[in-house]
């Protein structure tokens, strides 16, 4: 069964923050490559993190390629041949952990993720749509060739980058979801969500649209907008825990509010920053998919 077929049958459980689980297990993710560094230095840690989410009840495992790009690897002294191999490895590691029991989503973060300076939470990089498409296309080609079930075009901060990603997606032959990072009823760059979601209406390669890396309240509010403006496509939501990042103290503050309830009308449901396996297990149980117990 394809993921698109499964979405027609009922809600599907996503995993949580891969970096969250890696850090909980003791991984050092400092540096511009973030979790992508472990594709080269500690692939077993990535498999273990994926496995923790599978056992919690996740039906989709998202690869460690969010911050993995050819230019980003080049800045770290990794050549294009090895960089391509690491991108392919991200899919292979998730597939290994899935063991046929989950779908694999190949993550492709925004241009700002490669800059590693928080730009994905502002958007509007001053680049044209075609230049952004040229940045994204090589990575998407490599990930698509690695054979994921779906491409996760995620944490998109504005409509210009969404347009670029749709251009870069054309002809790859792999379905995708596109999710924005938002604040209130607008993208991080300030465009109305109705306009943002309307971009995917009629795009056959996009099987779902929605939001991630935002507050749980903003995610819930975005669901009906995504459903209406996105041409009735299934809606994907995977917000942060509800805590707030304090850039001055470099610490998370405030209460955890996810999971407080399953967003009505959502089809792909999981978590992003600060959402670990325990929260995914609660979501899975609520949706009727109890956690998978490890073998004795």
TrEMBL record:
It is an enzyme of class 2 (transferase). Its cofactor is Zn(2+). SUPFAM superfamilies: Homocysteine S-methyltransferase. Zn(2+) binds at residues 213, 272-273. GO terms for molecular function: S-adenosylmethionine-homocysteine S-methyltransferase activity; zinc ion binding. Its EC number is 2.1.1.10. Coiled coil: none annotated. Residues 1-287 form the Hcy-binding domain. One of its GO terms (biological process) is methionine biosynthetic process. It comes from the Bacteria. This is Homocysteine S-methyltransferase. Keywords: Metal-binding, Methyltransferase, Transferase, Zinc.
């Amino acid at each position: 069964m394809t993921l698109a077929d499964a979405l027609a049958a009922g809600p599907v459980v996503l995993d949580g923050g891969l970096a969250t689980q890696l850090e909980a297990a003791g991984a050092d993710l400092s540096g511009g490559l973030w979790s992508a560094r472990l594709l080269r230095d500690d692939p077993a840690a990535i498999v273990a993190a994926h496995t923790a989410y599978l056992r919690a009840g996740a039906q989709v495992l998202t690869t460690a390629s969010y911050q993995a790009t050819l230019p980003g690897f080049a800045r770290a002294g990794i050549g294009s041949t090895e960089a391509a191999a690491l991108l392919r490895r991200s899919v292979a590691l998730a597939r290994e952990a899935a063991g046929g029991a989950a779908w694999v989503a190949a993550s492709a973060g925004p241009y700002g993720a490669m800059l590693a300076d928080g730009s994905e939470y502002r958007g509007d990089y001053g680049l044209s749509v075609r230049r952004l498409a040229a940045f994204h296309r090589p990575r998407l080609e490599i990930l698509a060739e690695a054979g994921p079930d779906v491409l996760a075009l995620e944490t998109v901060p504005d409509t210009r980058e969404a347009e670029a990603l749709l251009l870069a997606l054309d002809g790859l032959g792999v379905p995708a979801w596109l999710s924005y990072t938002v604040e209130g009823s607008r993208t991080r760059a300030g465009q109305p969500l109705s306009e943002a979601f309307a971009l995917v209406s009629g795009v056959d390669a996009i099987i779902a649209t929605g939001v991630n890396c935002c507050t749980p309240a903003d995610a819930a509010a975005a669901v009906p907008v995504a459903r209406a403006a996105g041409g009735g496509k299934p809606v994907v939501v995977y917000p942060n825990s509800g805590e707030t990042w304090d850039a001055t103290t470099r610490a998370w503050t405030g209460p955890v509010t996810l999971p407080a309830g399953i967003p009505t009308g959502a089809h792909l449901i999981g978590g992003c920053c600060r959402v670990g396996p325990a929260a995914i297990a609660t979501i899975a149980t609520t949706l009727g998919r109890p956690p998978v117990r490890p073998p004795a």
